[in-house]
Amino acid sequence: MLYKRHNRIKEVLKKRQPHLTVLIEDVHKPHNLSAIIRTCDAVGILDLHVVNQNGKYPTFSKVSQGSEKWVFITTYISIDDAINALKRRKFKIYAAHFSKTAIDYRNVNYTEPVAILLGAEKWGVSKEAAQLVDGHITIPMLGMVQSLNVSVAAAVILFEAQRQRLEAKMYTKMQLSPTTYNKILFEWSYP
Ligand code: SAM
Description:
Number of strands: 7
Largest sheet: 7 strands, parallel
Strand order of the largest sheet: 3-2-1-6-4-7-5
Helix content: 25-40%
Bound molecules: S-adenosylmethionine
Number of helices: 6
Radius of gyration: 16 Å
Shape: globular
């Protein structure tokens, strides 16, 4: 049983994509946050970045199915701290945001180091964040309602990223450094 779990952890780590990440800005409903983490785990995301301007640590719901144990969460109290931290790590940041300059989410190259910024349930991406990022993307909406639930939008975009990365064989060549792989393998195997 323990052996099986250890092997599963190894297989999952071999597919983790440290250069694909998500930044969420003031998403406050635990079921949305949990659904986003679950999707991150499913596409192989290692780290999720969370801005909570009220400084509260995020809470999770059963929707996560425990996936918060397998995705590292870094919290920030300001959006510019979060964006600067990702820029220092050479991520291109695309905000899922309705604007005149927004492009179709399928026209982004997700095989590069990319961070997807998602906005709050009610207000969307802040003006400040929209100005700081490298570009805006949208999922075309052809119905009566103007936007998707934030966790659904995350899933649509992240599975396009997964599709591109599968095509580029990025899940068959390990993306983690040996040091990081061994460190996380130890942490996850002996919690
Ligand atoms: N009234 C808000 C607005 O105008 O942005 C709606 C917020 S929406 C419920 C929450 C977040 O989900 C958005 O900030 C965006 O990041 C993402 N989102 C939802 N539908 C989207 C779409 N069709 N294209 C891109 N992002 C979307």
